[in-house]
Amino acid sequence: MKLNNNRLDKVSREHLGSEVVEPIYNTDQLMNLLQVSRRTLQDWRDKGLIEFSAIRGKFYYRYSSVMKMLENHSIKPF
Q: pTM of the full predicted structure?
């Protein structure tokens, strides 16, 4: 799974304007951004692979948590 940081930044700016704050994604936004299913995100949460916040049954993910998960699971070239 390869993620382009520019794409994350672009989506963040569209939602937050030019304000410099850490983006927060809901489940649907993150599903679309990473092109994964709702079940995949649930698996990642259940396995503790990604940090999240749960408020009244809705899940939210900080940009830094997404990047941390991707960095922790990146495969370095030989």
A: 0.71
